[in-house]
């Protein structure tokens, strides 16, 4: 358990601080909140107090707290200070070393790592003054996240949205984890995303896989020192830092890329590979014919997991994923035996898992089943990467 000091700045994204506190508490961390004057216009102290199960601090001028130099104590007791949302004004005051309220005073007094999650209008984010402040903060050792891109409350579109709470939690976990490289010298192969099987030049067979879990796993493995090759289906996700990426479209392309990427110490087959493809994809767009529908004949795609697990260049550890909608554990156990995998990571995708930011998984091995609680996908990835490192040790 770690102690997180969360400073909630004054922006519309302050409401997401409530979910951030909830996720941190669920992950087993102690959270203490400092609510700025601006933040109090968007979030009530009572809400944060209920979620954190601790007092919320709002002012530098509390006689009881400051009789014991409360701002110094707050800053020193934490393992990590998180500013979310970090508004343009708050970032500017941090960069300038200003200490005119409780939040900025404890930021100046702390000797602990600081993580800032910016949130502001796109024009403010792109302004030269903000860029200078970000550069200064990073030079001072502050970890500043990159804001998300999307629609904003002001009606504009672009970078400046507060990163989602799950992403902030992942950044927090990375900062709290000692920098160790148990996978240094290891090569791990990861597949992620769907495959698209063409029917004609404009239509294809696909599934709802977003690739988020596979990309998160690739990034987590790289952070532990592994050389990671990520074979990615057609998804619009940024390549994790330190990961070599191979983009493919179809199952046959993915199978070829996997074979080309061997040998590997471990393989984590997260991709939701299409089981079937059109037997004969049309060279031209199939047109409607009056009074009838075309017949689509299907052919079976290569079984990448089984081929890898039974191949002559089999990695020492082969992990498959099973996305199920019923009898999750039964189907996963049968898949593990049938495919020859060492582990099957099973999850129920009947809800919002495909495309969502959280996952509930079960690790099925020859020895039994290990059930994990529902976690952000980044947290699932970090824990799974640690398990892989243990298995390869």
The CATH class assignment of the largest domain is: Alpha Beta
Annotation field: number of helices: 14
The portion of residues assigned to helices is 25-40%
Termini separation (Å)?
25 Å
Radius of gyration: 24 Å
Structural class: alpha/beta
Number of domains: 2
CATH level 3 topology of the largest domain: Rossmann fold
Weakly predicted, low-confidence segments: none
Mean pLDDT: 91
Characteristic key phrases:
2 domains, globular, alpha/beta, Rossmann fold, 393 residues, 6-stranded parallel β-sheet, 22 strands, 8-stranded mixed β-sheet, 34% helix
SSE inventory with pairings:
Layout: E1 3-8, H1 16-26, E2 30-35, H2 45-52, E3 56-57, H3 63-66, H4 70-77, E4 80-86, H5 88-95, H6 102-109, E5 114-118, H7 122-126, H8 128-139, E6 143-144, E7 148-151, E8 157-161, H9 165-176, E9 187-192, E10 197-200, E11 203-205, H10 212-223, E12 227-232, E13 243-247, H11 251-261, E14 266-269, E15 276-278, E16 298-300, H12 304-309, E17 317-324, H13 328-339, E18 343-348, E19 358-359, E20 361-365, E21 368-371, E22 375-376, H14 377-392
Parallel strand pairs: 1-2, 1-4, 2-3, 4-5, 5-6, 9-12, 9-14, 12-13, 14-17, 17-18
Antiparallel strand pairs: 7-8, 10-11, 15-16, 18-20, 19-22, 20-21
Helix pairs in contact: 1-2, 1-9, 4-6, 5-8, 9-14, 10-14
Q: How is this structure best summarized?
A:
The protein is an alpha/beta fold.
Tell me about this structure.
The chain is α/β, with parallel strands linked by helices and 393 residues long. The chain has two domains: 3-176, Flavin prenyltransferase-like (Rossmann fold, 3-Layer(aba) Sandwich); 187-392, 3-Layer(aba) Sandwich (Rossmann fold). The chain contains 14 helices and 22 strands. The strands form six sheets. Strands 13-12-9-14-17-18-20-21 form an eight-stranded mixed β-sheet, with helices on both faces. A hairpin with a 2-residue loop joins strand 20 (361-365) and strand 21. The longest helix is centred in the C-terminal third of the chain and has 16 residues, at 377-392. The two termini are 25 Å apart.
